[in-house]
Amino acid sequence: MSGFFMNTYHRLPVTFVKGEGAWLTDTGGKKYLDFGSGIAVNSLGHGYPPLVKALQEQAAKLIHTCNYYMSDTSLAFAEKLVAACAPVGMKKVFLANSGAEANEGAVKIARKYSLKKYGQGRHQIVTLKGSFHGRTITTLSATGQEKFHKDFGPFTEGFVFIPGGDLGLLDRALDQSQVAGLLIEAIQGESGILPQSAEYITHAAKLCAERDILLMFDEIQCGVGRSGKFLACEHYSVKSDIVTLAKGLAGGVPIGAVLAGEKAADVFENSDHGSTFGGNPLAASGGLVVLDTVNNGAFLAEIVRKGEKIMAAVRGWNHPAVKEVRGLGLMIGVDIEGEAGAMLEKALEAGLLILSAGPNTLRFLPPYTISDGEIEQGIGILRKIICTP
Ligand SMILES: Cc1ncc(COP(=O)(O)O)c(C=O)c1O
Prior knowledge:
It is built from 11 helices and 17 strands. It is of the alpha/beta class. The strands form 4 sheets. Strands 4-12-11-10-7-5-6 form a 7-stranded mixed sheet, with helices on both faces. The protein has a 4-stranded mixed sheet with strand order 1-2-3-15.
């Protein structure tokens, strides 16, 4: 059967038929504990009853209207999402279907903002080495990793990559006469769960504000509560000009969002941008359940506690095969002695789903609803496969 699909993914040898909470079941009835959430998408786990109910009710009522019209559910969702992102300055939203599409919107807004205010030529977008911003040609152009760039050129012009962490380099790269925006993941996901330092983000925010360069946080993987705050950039107490979200925002239904603050909220004018499915009522109904559940202090505190429990347990093994454990909330990276890819296969065999992020880093992004008992079970499996030669 898999011969019908293009050869884009290195798939593990398993086919799933059902999900419940933190568990997936394969065609043979074997159960797997999910420490990956479909790469940060199934934020509330599988088959979360309020999410299923909302989607079923919405599907029966209204699945789609084109963007000539408004739907009550999409309207309610947009209002709640903007409110959830208001602490970092967000005022308005454009709804899309994926992370790449959200980032495309962000780049367009930054370029138009700059063009209208400063004229032609000030269109560069600075991003960081090791970043991941998507798979479309423009978001690949924004992605600061060579390995994604081979074979697909020519790329969209006007992207500049700098290594993170170097304040002087950042200062020089943010050239006021050429740069429209800085696009940054507060915690880099795909390249190994690497949080930026508070000093770096604070400096970036200060330079962007002084030079009227839009500060854009790609929160597609680290946002929606994953880091223990609704947005990961909230850990740094800075305001943002643009925030992009996707993945876990509707609990598994495709969605993307680009939000903008005071400066950029009204940059898009009529007919500047659009998306057939963007913000459709079905995705919005899932999004409402996620926002109502996750954007809550006690729920976010539990994400932090569960993440610390996992990190403390792995550190506590004190085993030479574990080189480093890092992360925020339920976004955890573990550097190991051997190859991460091989470990994914071993974990699968043992009934645990984990992810990798780079050649030697295991990545854990469990659903927020995972129980303490399930965490202990997963940690037990991990210990066996990592620490047993
Ligand atoms: C930080 C970040 N940005 C953008 C994307 C692209 O999202 P999508 O695959 O939904 O287009 C991803 C996906 O992994 C991501 O982690």
